[in-house]
Amino acid sequence: MNKLIVLVCTLFLSVLSFNSFAAVVVIANPAFDADLDKADVRKYFLGKTHQLPNGEKVKLYDLPLNNAARETFRENVLRKTESRLNAHWARMLFSSKAQLPEMVSSVDELKEIISQTPNALGYMDSVDVDSSVKVILTLD
């Protein structure tokens, strides 16, 4: 009986952890036509590049703190801890080299803004994607 309980609990926890680790995707307005890779996205979200290949200025949107997709994006794309990211942006803002991505309050707000804003980039969990936004990159 104990082995059965352990097995059931293990299976339950496996399902929970599988569902909580869906892919994070970079999204854009449906009219967005540039091809970007992970390195490009990193440069935009660290303020190192401000213009898209078509010469237009990129508009960046960030999910709230403690959002799982934000943490995955920060770790895998930006490759910085939250404190290192804050220090990076403090330096960038002090030197007037870049503007901080605008933080939204929810995934729904992010989708609404991205769907209405040309040249906008954001990211979210792939399970939240709908036809209002275009996936331009799926992160590993």
Key phrases:
140 residues, alpha/beta, 5-stranded mixed sheet, 43% helix
Describe the protein in words.
This protein is an alpha/beta fold and 140 residues long. The protein contains 5 helices and 5 strands; from the N terminus they run H-E-H-E-H-H-E-H-E-E. The chain has a 5-stranded mixed β-sheet, sandwiched between helices. The longest helix is centred in the N-terminal third of the chain and has 18 residues.
List the helices and strands and how they pair.
Elements: H1 2-19, E1 24-28, H2 38-45, E2 59-62, H3 68-78, H4 82-94, E3 102-103, H5 107-116, E4 120-125, E5 134-138
Parallel strand pairs: 2-3, 2-4
Antiparallel strand pairs: 1-4, 1-5
DSSP summary: helix tally: 5
List SSEs in N-to-C order. Answer: HEHEHHEHEE
- Which bin fits the share of residues in helices? 40-55%
Point out poorly predicted stretches.
Answer: 6-19
Termini distance?
39 Å
- Average pLDDT taken over every residue: 84
Structural class: alpha/beta
β-strand percent reads 15-25%
For the largest beta sheet, what order do the strands appear in spatially? 3-2-4-1-5
Shape: globular
Largest sheet: 5 strands, mixed
Q: Please state the CA-atom Rg, rounded to the nearest Å.
A: 18 Å
Write down how many β-strands occur, each being a DSSP E stretch of 2 or more residues: 5
